[in-house]
Amino acid sequence: MTAEGLVWGYIYPNEAEIQWSILIVLYPYITGLVAGAFIASSLYHVFGKKEIRPVARFALLTALAFLLVATMPLLTHLGHPERGIEIMFTPHLTSAMSGFGYIYSFYLIIVVLEIWLSFREDIVRTALNSRGWKELLYSALALFSYDISEKALHDDEKLAKKLAIIGIPSAAFLHGYVGFIFGGIKANPWWSTPLMPLIFLMSAIVSGIALLILLYIASMKIRKHAIDHKCLHSLAHYLWVFLILDVALELLEIVSMKYESLEEMEIVNRLLSEKIATTFYGVQLGLGIFVPFILLLLVGIMRNRETLKMILISISSIFVVTGVFAMRWNVVIGGQEISKSLSGTMTYVPVFFSQEGVLPAIIILSLPFVILYVLTRILPPWKDMESTE
Amino acid sequence: MNVSRREFTRIGCRIIIGAAAGTAVVESIVTNSAAKENPPKGGYDWNEHFWGYLVDTRKCIGCGRCANACKLENEVPFDEPVYRTWVERYRIIKKEREEEVIIDSPNGSIDGFVDDIPDEEIKKAFYVPKICNHCENPPCVQVCPVGATYTTEDGVVLVDYDYCIGCRYCIQGCPYGARYFNTEKGTADKCTWCYHRITKGLLPACVQACPVGARVFGDLNDPESAVNKVLDIERINVLKPDLGTKPKVYYVGLDREVR
After folding, report:
1. Could you tell me the domains of chain B?
2. Predicted complex ipTM exceeds 0.90
3. Chain B contacts of A89, Cβ < 8 Å?
């Protein structure tokens, strides 16, 4: 790739190569989906929102499916993936990045435990009612403990709630922390803001809820089961509320930046008008927030017409997950398209076939759906709902 | 569940204590400052020195010999856009109401500069050599997740190539664009102030190559050093002082346009 034509003004000679590629766009996108899905599930598990129950367990599986691939874009990107584990053995604690291994592992444990407790009754029943390899698999999953007395299940539920209570701040921390990785870089005026963790968190929650909505509708359609509209509307309602928080923070950030107009504003303005105008104003704010905000508002005031509402909610959710991807792109790539000399811009040109190209990004982003399919085969998340219906 | 709450807590505590002890043991075996605890040998005592660098922008003629010498000395790839030091040219163009500033550093200045704007259009022009600032408060060291980049006792910021995982966070963290990714090593890379030379009493290659003395290197601990002699009498500045990085590359004659 030649620098000619991709550079405007003056960039430091070492800045000709963009260091963090599309894979690093995926990393906050995926962890955001994880955090969002988990928080959606805790609306039921912690806050007792009964209407969310149909998707509560599915949300946990979704969180796990995405969490399992969250490290992949990072490891693929490293110059020395085999040394990546050093971040666990010898973390350099002044680095915002050094906590990643621990926060990630801690959160993984919480999610796995939460899933185990939520599914334990089903696991034990399947173990007791099957033979052969299936019996063995589910007995192992049950950790060879078959107590599903009322008291035991009650204890499970209490513990699950406690775990979810720990899980919420962990999810918030996992993702807010990703925001800090960018927000704490004083060298980069487009990244350096204390609002970054909060912006990341809010966009994480909206993306997670939107993804959950889409996966829920898709699963029900594929399985030819009726959609629980009460649950869907409730999710749409939370999506709408968090969209407001999200847009408030994103606008606050950009407005105060423009209003204060510090030295770096000239180049940031250029970034916004020349480099990421479409993805920022068009996709991130317009398509990703404004349009779904209006559509979901319509859903809120509309009466009956469930199918139309479902379509509007689906469209909103597609826009939201797209908009949040654009947001990650605008932060990660946008921030690297301005020179730290504040005198020029560069252009990121994604390559398709390369270690850090679009192809591995597509593969990594497809994997969670495969994992989720497998997970739902092993631990059917709908069972408890549909058997009590 | 079969496990009582008390039992659960007890097992939990044991796991936590075990994990903490395990971490401590691992940490005592694998330390992330292996390179830092391995000072240079051969009679050089890094506690006796504290290096500093000075650039007199008024003297620089933009010949680019420094940048060339650096690439040769440190085997920095010539065919890649990566540089440990470079020279920037600032040309302030006469305009009716406001000035236009044109900055460039073609190929990191290793081949020098070409005059492509007529002299009469230029109001003012000057060169600014750039190099890693070996900050006293280096953001690159702060952000390295494994401690692979570190500050030596004599004040030089280095990369442990056997330790760096290649995440490039340091490249993002450096406000000066002084770091680059070494594709051959798969690690971050940067200026070392020619550590292999200065620990033998030699000057960094760029300082050695400068024909006009625009680049000065010396021991800040030594009141008679070349750097201190200029610092004692000149008004000096550093790049981006507001970022609090405390650079140890000092500039004489720094224009407001330079960042």
Report:
1. 51-252 (3.30.70.20)
2. yes
3. 26-27, 30
